[in-house]
């Protein structure tokens, strides 16, 4: 029989499908540690709908086994339901190092055993949150425009926290490997790209090669090689930090001690402009940005507002 959870609340363990594919052994270890230390309900999810249904279970403490995007998806769902403050979240990071960097930066231990033990023996810590004017949440940092991010995840250029992505760049289709998908192109599993006779269409390899070449020319690696400079208007609590006649290379927004810290890198200035505020607005010609390694836009204006201590994460005592 499982030992009681120290909080007196059973666990709802949500296992992300990307984690199962990326490192099934770490997932198994984390699951075994959690089940040995608490009453736990295991949910093997295949997409955002499964996660949403799982979170409908009451009186269970959510635990995410997965990468940063899996954690972001759960935080975003609970925020939109206005249930984020109801219980502390826990996460066992599983994935390549750059896909779990945010969880570790928040204080979650490395390794499935240490992280699972922190879930069982740790304590909830209140954390601040950035929420934009489209009601999307940010746990880490916003970068405008969508430029170079060291170690960016190959499947992080999605259109939001709820859009599951396969590691090769296409949307997740449970049970079906998919190839790279162009914007606006429906996701078609490879096994469906067959003729009625069961043979692969002659154009399929060429089409995949063309799509791969296009992805290389327009993807993160190509963007990293291009100079990032655009015209933006940046305001912090109404105070103007940059205007359209002052080209900027990069703008970052993050939370520091309950306030949003905005850093504006001007093209012609030796040092960036820094400010802290409750709300930061970036506007200008259509621009893209990245929030927690997720690409978004284009938009003409976006405002990020700090919600102090809006959520709780279980961390080591």
UniProtKB/TrEMBL annotation:
Renumbered to this chain, the Low complexity biased-composition regions fall at 170-185
The segments labelled Disordered in the record are 154-188
Q: What highest taxon heads this organism's lineage?
A: Bacteria
Q: What is this protein called?
A: Diacylglycerol kinase
The scientific name of the source species is: Streptomyces syringium
